[in-house]
Design goal:
15 helices; DNA Methylphosphotriester Repair Domain; four-stranded mixed sheet; alpha+beta; Arc Repressor Mutant, subunit A; TATA-Binding Protein
């Protein structure tokens, strides 16, 4: 059963093309069989012809295909489940890293410490689609982005998006879009040379300078306004490098040079984690501002993100981790769930501000 969405709220967002809802749901148009982002510039469909879905996988499971105009693959990753299920969060991180590319759902459930049936139920409850469908949608949407934004050949796109073979790649696109993947490329791409360049979406605001400062403070390679990491075969499944820089509002620009194309989805998943691209700044600010001790700091520093680890196998989501053993902070942080890590960050800023005023 798919998560229940407020039809009226979703409809108002579609009519207004409200960017605050981009990635929070997708609109299925029954008269065309297409699903769109709320910000799609196409003509607003008739009210009686729309259905709303919590995620791209749910829309595709309902029989809709992605809009070629608003490109759902470029929407922020902002599922309605976020903050409600640690198991779903951990499962999605594993799926994005390729956990279902060479294994089944039972193996994924075992890694998560839950039963297969329970995992399937959680996915239906929070995402409206089965784990395999979610994995398939992620592969297809990454492939679609590579077709639009890279110069890779179709065979290379298939490998770089996690498909085990070109045949499976072609079959998936034919089934979902009723056309081969090559038909989605608007112009003939030259032979790929050099790194793969892609934009990764996030929800604004984003304090880029604060993120770079935090990454540099922990020892990451930061220089000239960007971040860089050398890839290692024993960790990343490939050699090469990845660089990240700020792009237009709502997008970070990634440049990846990978020796093994099939490792690209895992590399991109780790980039998203390091730069906390799935954060919901609106929800974080709303919830943490309810604490008077944090309200001023939250207002003064919008869009702070938590730098994530390149390798992260912890059970709790990063947003709710609290490393401090300060009993006063630990007790207060209970009211910040599921944003305890963000609360601790803003608490530090507010304390520093109080100390500065006292001196």
């Amino acid at each position: 059963m798919e998560p229940t969405l407020d039809f009226e709220a979703c409809w108002r967002a579609v009519v207004a093309r409200d960017a605050r809802f981009d990635g929070r749901f997708f609109t299925g148009v029954t008269s065309t069989g297409i699903y769109c982002r709320p910000v799609c510039p196409a003509r607003t469909p008739r009210r009686e012809n729309v259905t709303f879905h919590a995620g791209a996988a749910a829309a595709e499971a309902a029989g809709f295909r992605a809009c070629l105009r608003c490109r759902p693959e470029t929407a922020p990753d902002m599922g309605a489940w976020r903050g409600t299920s640690n198991t779903v969060s951990r499962a999605l991180a594993l799926i994005e890293g390729g956990a279902l590319d060479g294994a089944d759902v039972d193996a994924l459930a075992t890694r998560l410490g839950v039963g297969e049936r329970h995992l399937r139920r959680l996915f239906r409850q929070h995402l409206g689609a089965a784990p395999v469908s979610v994995a398939q949608t992620r592969r297809v949407l990454l492939a679609k982005q590579l077709i639009h934004e890279s110069r890779l050949s179709m065979a290379e796109v298939a490998l770089a998006s996690g498909f085990g073979s070109v045949r499976r790649f072609n079959e998936a696109f034919q089934a979902l879009y009723d056309r081969p993947p090559s038909a989605l490329r608007r112009r003939r791409a030259p032979e790929a040379t050099g790194p793969i360049r892609l934009g990764l979406a996030y929800r604004p605001p984003y304090d880029w300078e604060a993120m770079l400062t935090a990454l540099a403070a922990r020892g990451d390679a930061v220089a000239d306004g960007g971040w860089r990491r050398e890839l290692q075969p024993d960790i990343d499944g490939t050699d090469g490098r990845v660089e990240v820089r700020a792009g237009e509002v709502g997008r970070l620009m990634v440049e990846a040079q990978v020796g093994t194309l099939s490792a690209l989805p895992g590399v991109l998943a780790r980039v998203r984690r390091v730069f906390d691209l799935a954060a919901d700044p609106e929800a974080i600010a709303r919830d943490l501002s309810a604490d008077p001790a944090l309200a001023a700091a939250v207002a003064a520093h919008p869009g702070l993100r938590l730098p994530g680890d390149w390798i992260d196998e912890a059970d709790d989501p990063p947003s709710d981790r609290l490393s401090s053993e300060n009993p006063v902070l630990s007790a207060r942080a209970e009211r910040w769930r599921p944003w305890r890590s963000y609360g601790a960050l803003y608490w530090t800023l507010s304390k520093e501000a109080r100390d500065a005023q006292a001196t």
